[in-house]
Design goal:
The protein is α+β, with helices and mostly antiparallel strands. The protein folds into two domains: 173 residues, Thermophilic metalloprotease (M29) (Thermophilic metalloprotease-like, 3-Layer(aba) Sandwich), CATH 3.40.1830.10; 192 residues, no CATH class. The chain contains 13 helices and 19 strands. Strand 7 and strand 8 form a beta hairpin. Helix 1 packs across helix 2 and helix 1 crosses helix 10. It is globular and about 55 Å long.
Length: 409
């Protein structure tokens, strides 16, 4: 199978397994202009599955850099109503959303951090209803990636533009299990992840104790009736199964927003808003970050933590074995979609309501009372490595080893 065939296979997986396009469904693709060719392949596969209409919202990172450099802070606080209306319409029509990542991971480095914070908060507030609907799985959505020269140059500076671009494509396609029968590969993978989630759900641990040799010593509380989710999700408006991340290796749930305590160190750099944050730690008391430090990107991390009250609490804990297709490449992708699937991780910010029994039907007050965190943001960072041990603690104090030396016990 040549590269072009592998990429087409990948496009089929994104359309069929990722968002699982239904007859007469409207699909919105959100993509960087760097990913134009792949976005069009995905669009075609969506049409082949019966999509009524496919629209593509293009992003240009260089334009974003210019805007953050030259536009005033007051301008960055504004959003046109048509942007809000367009996204609300997607939800109203039960459309599918496909996001394609391909930007330079450090492409916004050097912009004013205060302007970046302002821009992020403005967009988060404007699209709050849209993001809330996606995180409640009202409509199907998925995130995938495409190779680009800019991204590849960050990972493989020693290679020529073409060599790096092709090498990154090979890594993406291998990690996404598209060789051979990609659809069958994913059905088998989903089944394996479901089995892990079932084990965790049957045990209903009240806490996880996470340690690593780098100094991480963290207790993560879990609320009653929490649900561990794996690859497959169900869209509430349409009933169709979808897979939110292509690729995915994680089993995840929501922590109790007021219980997490201890200290945790990152094990891979965090790419937040196209700025790299690295060599950092955060300390929790009663669920809230009370102290932190970072060798790189500390001002951006500070802005993230100060987004709102909920951004200092965690909304997700995900278990990922150290030995996985992505981790075994020994490549640091500098992109959360990939790096989070090579490592256990937690997320600062909003929790997924679907990780509580009947959570998608709860009010914000009911979710908060049940222990779910709320925030304008949701940012994953990686905390697992080859030394990570995780123990599940049950309500009666029984301890069950879940991870030893970075992998399932």
């Amino acid at each position: 199978m040549n590269l072009e065939q592998r990429i087409q296979n990948y496009a089929k997986v994104v359309a069929k397994i990722g968002v699982n396009v239904q007859e007469k469904q409207e699909i919105t693709i959100r993509a960087s202009i760097e990913a134009r060719d792949f976005a069009l392949k995905v669009s075609e596969e969506c049409y082949k599955l019966g999509a009524k209409r496919v629209s593509i919202d293009w992003r240009d990172q260089k334009l974003s850099f210019q805007t953050l450099t030259y536009a005033s802070k007051e301008t960055l606080e504004e959003t046109s109503q048509w942007v809000v209306d367009k996204h609300d319409e997607i939800i109203e029509k039960a459309g599918g959303v496909i996001s394609i990542i391909s930007d330079d991971p450090d492409g916004l480095a050097g912009v004013d951090s205060d302007k970046l914070k302002t821009s992020m908060i403005t967009m988060s507030k404007s699209l709050r209803n849209f993001m809330k609907s996606l995180m409640s799985n009202e409509c199907p959505w998925t995130i995938a990636a495409a190779s680009s020269v800019a991204w590849a140059k960050k990972l493989f500076p020693e290679l020529s533009d073409e060599e790096g671009y092709l090498k990154l494509w090979d890594l993406i396609l291998t990690a996404c299990r598209v060789d051979g029968d990609g659809i069958e590969n994913w059905e088998n993978h989903i089944k394996n992840l479901d089995e892990k989630a079932t084990f965790l759900n049957n045990n209903q641990f009240t806490k996880l104790h996470i340690t690593s040799e780098n100094g991480t010593d963290l207790y993560v509380g879990l609320p009653k009736n929490h649900i561990w989710q794996s690859a497959g999700s169900i869209a509430g408006k349409t009933g169709q199964r979808f897979v939110a991340n292509i690729p995915t290796e994680e089993i995840f749930t929501l922590p109790h927003k007021d219980v997490t305590s201890g200290i945790v160190y990152n094990t891979k750099p965090l790419n937040y808003a196209s700025v790299i944050i690295d060599n950092f730690w955060v300390k929790f008391e009663e669920g809230k970050v009370v102290d932190f430090d970072a060798e790189r990107g500390k001002d951006v991390l500070a802005n993230l933590l100060d987004t709102d009250e909920g951004s200092r609490k965690i909304g997700e804990i995900a278990l990922v074995p150290f030995h996985s297709p992505i981790s075994n490449t020994n490549i640091l992708f500098l992109e959360t979609l990939y790096d989070e699937n090579a490592s256990c991780h937690i997320a600062l910010g909003k929790a997924y309501p679907t990780c509580l029994v009947n959570g998608e039907n709860m009010t914000e007050e009911e979710l908060a009372n049940a222990g779910a965190n709320d925030s304008l943001t949701h940012v994953d960072f990686m905390i697992g490595d080859a030394t990570t041990n995780i123990t599940g603690i049950k309500e009666d104090g029984t301890e069950i080893p879940l991870f030893r030396n970075g992998n399932w016990a």
